[in-house]
Design a protein that fits this description.
Length: about 170
C-alpha cells in the first residue's frame, strides 16, 4: 500500500468517531484501530467446597489433631491504592471531567516554550485540543468531548497519568 494513501486515510479518520476500519482490496488488507480499548475487567468466581466429616477424604479426626503453638497470626495489611489512579469525584453540581484514554505522560502544551492549550476559565468547544498525553513515544492530542468552561486542571504538567484518570474538570457552557 502506498504510504501517502495510508496517511490520507489516517487524516480522514482524525476527529471522527470511527474507532476501527477494515479494508480489503484484492490481496491487500488493512485494519486500523484508533485509540485504546477499555481496560479489561477481571472477575473472581467462587466454587462451593464439598463438605466432609472428620475421618473422610483425609480430614483428621479430632483425636489425631495435635495443637501446635505459634508466635502470632499474620495480620493482613491493606494494599494502598494510589490517589492518582482514582478519578476525581465529580462535584455535587453539574461539572464533568475529561479523562485520559490511555497510560502516558500529561503535557499541558505542545512544547515547553508554548503556552498551555487551556487555562482555568477558558471556554472550549467540542473537538478543541486540551492537552497532550505521550504514550509509547507518540504525542496524542486529547480533545474536548463537549463544550464547557474549564474549572480545574487536575494533573500537573509532565506527570504520569493512568487509563481513565481525570485530567480536567469542566462545567457545561
Amino acid at each position: 500500500m502506498d504510504v501517502d494513501k495510508l496517511k490520507a486515510i489516517l487524516d480522514a479518520l482524525q476527529g471522527t468517531d470511527v474507532s476501527r476500519l477494515d479494508w480489503t482490496d484484492g490481496t491487500q488488507r488493512l485494519t486500523i484501530r484508533l485509540g485504546h480499548p477499555p481496560a479489561p475487567t477481571t472477575s473472581v468466581h467462587t466454587m462451593p467446597m464439598a463438605t466432609a466429616m472428620p475421618g473422610q477424604m483425609g480430614i483428621p479426626t479430632p483425636a489425631s489433631i495435635t495443637p501446635t503453638p505459634f508466635a502470632s497470626a499474620p495480620v493482613p495489611t491493606p494494599i494502598p491504592t494510589p490517589a492518582a489512579a482514582q478519578p476525581a469525584p465529580a462535584a455535587a453540581d453539574n461539572t464533568f471531567t475529561v479523562n485520559s484514554p490511555f497510560v502516558g505522560t500529561f503535557y499541558r502544551s505542545a512544547s515547553p516554550d508554548n503556552p498551555p492549550f487551556v487555562e482555568v476559565g477558558t471556554v472550549v468547544k467540542k473537538g478543541q485540543v486540551l492537552c497532550i498525553v505521550e504514550a509509547m513515544k507518540l504525542m496524542n492530542e486529547i480533545e474536548a468531548e463537549r463544550a464547557g468552561r474549564l474549572v480545574e486542571t487536575l494533573i500537573q504538567n509532565g506527570s504520569p497519568v493512568e487509563y481513565g484518570e481525570a485530567l480536567f474538570r469542566f462545567e457545561p457552557a
